[in-house]
Write a structure and sequence with these properties.
670 residues; Rossmann fold; 4 domains
């Protein structure tokens, strides 16, 4: 029986601890308590249980053991891993498919309330695929782009077209290895076919296709989803937002959108600003409607509309515990079935909206892009009508300001300006050593670890080592709650070289790049760094690392695998799905070794699972420094920087005139 953890051990977030204390007082179960009460199956967690046919399940607990069909531990682990990767790729790519269909409907005037907001990005993306743009209306271009994107899911031969946006050397490597995805759905289906009883039984061959399946996600479905979201809802640029449960309002109708698809959340935002809906809320006794988000939906509306984030994955139950939420509107992915039973203790309505997702006991109002605004208003009216049923509330006062919205387009502009947008300043800062390297910290929360701790601890330690951090998903919200996404506040915890760069450009030390599907933006940034020159000619040469400190979903494994395929070193915190048994003879399983050393030999990237945060930091910095040395860059030396930039100017301004002249000009001042 696992030991019961203290509130501090459950979460690093004071707002979460406050609500967990209230849950204990009320005798209400949350994911944190269930994680304490339910011991994980160490055999299944290690990938050693096979249940792919009716002869099993086969639980292999000793080296050399086989399943009834003769499948070895290595084969079973490889099958389990690729199935998880395929499921994660399917989740992200199905999102991309829906976005492409929405773009098609908008192009043909069949989607109520939507419009093309970023014509420039539409033209840029279409031109990449040789879609004619000159002299054509945006709707014509969008229709052709939608057709192209929709075709990527069902096509059987050729290549998934967004892969042409990878560095040229990387594309050639994929071609040589035979892992260019032919069609997004084809690769996912083949992954499932290969793992059926009696099919692929060579672990390395199975994982060869895992790479192909993951590329179909990162350089296919996810990239399509991000492109279309930007075209329809606007490419993000920095704005001011807030995060944590303190964004809920006592005197307003609180509606939380939770899930992953911006087609719904963006329309809820639009409907909430309709004068008719505002008057309806006032007539119900509220001052208006307060929208906030949880999980990746939060990131989508935060970075485009400035709508606050109520929290990340493990805040979904805690938000209901406040008693202040009239409705939680959910679509797909990362939604706990426990929400409905929890909401029975309060007045909150759980409203499911996707044709793919229903939860027993929830209210279902199916969303249809063809009637989007009408349905969004209907949902909000249900929430407003529920305002009168609100009882006692407990809203934590914790909330933090943040600056989200760092798309790769904005980073390009911020570094070079509108007339000379370029990644040259970033590359130069890395080459000079002001920035030691780059870390992408992404992924979920996991209730088996202290919520947010790993994200925040690793982020803070890397910033002190002059590592620029980019973040997406729940990781970005964790950093937001801790103050890392707000300019000068975050700079107090930053190394001297990175601080100079952030002050000069005017950016926070942690860049919020969007939802988990927007990890495709990170791929684009890495590609642009390569194309800018000076840091090698492929992603595997960059001093960069990808981290998922609190991972829990199959999507995380798909993301990690496509980053490995792109040439990145990826470190997961938490459980290891291919670890084998504690009493194994070898130091690592064949699969562990293959996804690290084997994949590194083939693709220049590798995947490792590390539980200790200090070891994660050590390996990250070791890898960054090795890549710097391989490129012939100067060794990292924090003492070389930190006396220029805005901070130095402020110091000088505080000095008397004569001392200021002496400090600036030295002997020449005399």
């Amino acid at each position: 029986m696992p030991k019961k953890r203290s509130l501090e051990e459950k979460s690093a977030d004071p707002a979460a601890r406050e609500m967990l204390a209230y849950a204990e007082e009320m005798g209400i179960s949350t994911a944190f308590e269930r994680a304490d009460a339910l011991a994980p199956c160490n055999i299944g967690a290690a990938g050693l249980c096979c249940k792919l046919c009716g002869m099993g399940p086969c639980r292999l607990t000793k080296d050399g053991a086989t399943g009834i069909c003769g499948a070895t531990i290595d084969t079973i682990q490889a099958r389990n891993l690729i199935r998880a990767i395929a499921a994660g790729a399917a989740a992200h790519s199905d999102h991309g498919r829906d976005m492409a269909f929405t773009l098609k409907a908008v192009a043909n005037g069949e989607a109520e309330g939507y419009m093309i907001r970023d014509v420039a990005k539409l033209r840029t993306v279409a031109a990449r695929y040789d879609i004619p743009i000159e002299g054509r209306a945006p709707e014509e271009i969008a229709n052709d782009l939608a057709d192209l994107y929709i075709a990527q899911f069902g096509q059987q031969n050729g290549r998934v077209v967004p892969t042409v946006r990878a560095p040229e050397k990387r594309q050639k490597l994929w071609e040589e290895r035979g892992v260019i995805p032919r069609g997004i759905d084809r690769e996912v289906v083949e992954a499932l076919h290969r793992t059926h009883i009696g099919d692929d039984q060579d672990p390395r061959h199975i994982l060869h296709h895992a790479i192909r399946t993951a590329i179909a996600d990162g350089w296919g479905g996810s990239m399509i989803a991000t492109d279309v979201s930007d075209i329809l809802f606007g490419t993000p640029a920095p704005l001011l937002g807030q995060a944590n449960l303190g964004v809920l309002k006592e005197d307003m109708v609180n509606v939380i959108v939770h899930g992953h698809e911006p087609t719904l959340s963006e329309m809820i935002v639009a409907a909430s600003q309709d004068p008719e809906i505002i008057e309806y809320a006032k007539a119900a006794g509220a001052k208006g409607i307060s929208l906030s988000g949880i999980c990746c939906t939060a990131n989508e509306i935060l970075m485009r509309q400035g709508i606050p984030a109520a929290g990340n994955f493990l805040h979904q139950e805690l938000a209901i515990l406040t008693g202040a939420v009239e409705a939680m509107v959910v679509d797909v992915q990362c939604i706990m079935q426990a929400l409905v039973k929890l909401a029975d203790n309060f007045h909150t309505k759980i409203i499911t909206t996707s044709p793919k997702v229903r939860i027993k006991g929830a209210t279902h109002i199916e969303f249809d892009e063809h009637r989007a605004l009408t349905i969004a208003k209907e949902i909000l009216k249900v929430a407003i009508d529920n305002f009168k049923n609100r009882g006692e509330t407990r809203i934590p006062q914790d909330r933090a300001d943040l600056i989200p919205g760092f798309s790769h387009e904005y980073i390009n502009y911020a570094l070079g300006g509108s007339y000379r947008g370029s990644f040259r300043p970033l590359n130069d800062a890395i080459m000079a050593g002001r920035i030691r390297g780059v870390a992408a910290i992404v992924g979920c929360n996991n209730p088996r670890t202290q919520q947010d701790f790993m994200h925040v601890y690793v982020t803070e330690r890397l910033l002190k080592e002059d590592v620029l951090v980019v973040e997406t998903g729940c990781s970005a919200i964790a950093s937001a709650k801790s103050g890392f996404l707000l300019g000068e506040a975050g700079l107090e915890k930053v190394g001297p070289g990175l601080r100079e760069v952030c002050e000069a450009i005017g950016i926070p030390p942690v860049l919020h790049m969007g939802s988990c599907v927007d990890n495709s933006r990170i791929l684009t940034v890495l590609t642009q760094m390569v194309e800018e020159g000076g840091l090698g000619d492929d992603i595997d040469q960059l001093p960069a690392v990808g981290l998922a400190p609190e991972w829990m979903s199959e999507k995380a494994l798909a993301i990690g695998t496509y980053c490995v395929a792109s040439g990145a070193y990826v470190i997961f915190g938490g459980s290891n799905p291919v670890s084998g048994m504690p009493d194994r003879v070898a130091d690592s399983t064949l699969i562990e070794q293959y996804i690290s050393e084997g994949w590194e030999e083939l693709y220049g990237g590798k995947m490792e699972f590390v539980t200790d945060p200090d070891e994660i930091i050590r390996r990250t910095l070791e890898h960054i420094d090795k890549k710097r040395a391989d490129l012939g860059l100067p060794a990292y030396d924090p003492n070389r920087f930190g006396r220029s930039g805005d901070a130095r100017i402020h110091e000088l301004e505080a000095l008397p005139l004569e001392e200021r002249r002496a400090a600036i000009y030295g002997a020449r001042a005399k």
